Amino acid sequence: MTRTVGFFTARLYGESGAAQPGTDGLHAFFLLTDEPEVYNLPPAPEVPTRGVGRSWLAAAAGALGMLALAAATLVLRAEAPR
Amino acid sequence: MILRRRDGRNLDRRVADLQGEAAGIEPGAAASLVHVSEPAASPVDTYYDVPVVKPAPWQWYVPAYFYAGGLAGAAATLAAAAELGGRHLLARRLHAIAVVGEAAGAVCLIADLGRPARFHYMMRVFRPTSPMNLGTWILSAASAASGLALLGGLRGRRRLGAASCASAITGAMLSTYTAVLIGNTAIPVWRAARVVLPGWFAAASTASLASLVELIGTAPQLPRGYVTVAKTAALVGSIAVARAARRAGVARPLHQGRSGGRWRGAMWLGLASLAATLLGRTRVAGALGTAAAVAARFAIVDAGRASAADPRATFAPQRARAAHAR
Lengths: 82, 326
Fold this sequence. Notes:
Distance between the termini of chain B: 54 Å
Radius of gyration of chain A: 25 Å
Order of helices and strands of chain B: HHHHHHHHHHHH
Number of domains of chain A: 2
Structural class of chain B: mainly alpha
CATH superfamily of the largest domain in chain B: Formate dehydrogenase/DMSO reductase domain
Helix content of chain A: 25-40%
Number of helices of chain A: 1
Helix content of chain B: 55-70%
Number of helices of chain B: 12
Oligomer: heterodimer
Strand content of chain B: under 5%
Structural class of chain A: mainly alpha
CATH topology of the largest domain in chain B: Formate dehydrogenase/DMSO reductase fold
Largest sheet of chain B: none
CATH class of the largest domain in chain B: Mainly Alpha
CATH architecture of the largest domain in chain B: Up-down Bundle
Order of helices and strands of chain A: EEH
């Protein structure tokens, strides 16, 4: 409707999860007449903890690396003849 | 008791309406934030350079905690290995470092709360989706375990105990979870590096332990191999973090300004420390390495602050991601 009366760049922001991938919708929507950046809104916001699993996996790998380095230097050295 | 703070983290209701949760912004400063500069050249570039995301309102306690917690975690992991390898004096020293580091870290965290008297509220819930809540539990478990392990060692225990094992595992988690915590925020430079940050934190923690033991200087020392591998891994990790940030186009805080200076300084100090280790100058290597470890933690927190202040750093990766999805 807004577009038909001449606001060709008008859009709805945050309407639903489908329209705003990365979020489940913002539970509120804004009628913007230009790019979101013009209103200081992020163009494609994403819930920050989305994909936190990959970070935890990396943390587990880092922790295992620490344990492995510690074991390699002290346990193995103790078993090797001095 | 409620501590009145002068460092600006009490909510000022007069500016709360203007800027949301007013993390220490005086009314005058808030007004100047709203009209910062000339209109940008392109209208769709940014909104008058006003930041999109808020910086973390962290004082120096938080990077200090990253250092102390990482150091303590690395000490706990190595202590268990030392016990298993029969080096009891070294194990006891490492457990002592772990206990002191974890206690100092807990003090830093509590001091950084806006209302320190309410810190026990963190322990009222267990929420796996919140790295900060999990971290509270990890720190508590690690402190308890390494305290018990140290006590066992002081009472003459000669084999690997359950407390040492628990202390090693929770310690390794303590060194790395902070990277998950900062990586999964809206701060562009941290977010860009969220898969490589934990590895770097692990490496940086082992390097800070190696450097601290060198700096203390007296026997028992750590094996040279551990020190060399730890310091090299810390350097490689920081290069990986910078590369990830560059790939996302948000690496500017790692090159420019105060955070850039600290970041580069930490790299050169780390390199010099590695060289000093290889040349056998233990004390010098320890001092340089400790300075590098502390500088690196402050640099990454600073970089987050600078990154939050730059709206382009928020917009650019999102535009790229949206264009990629389309």
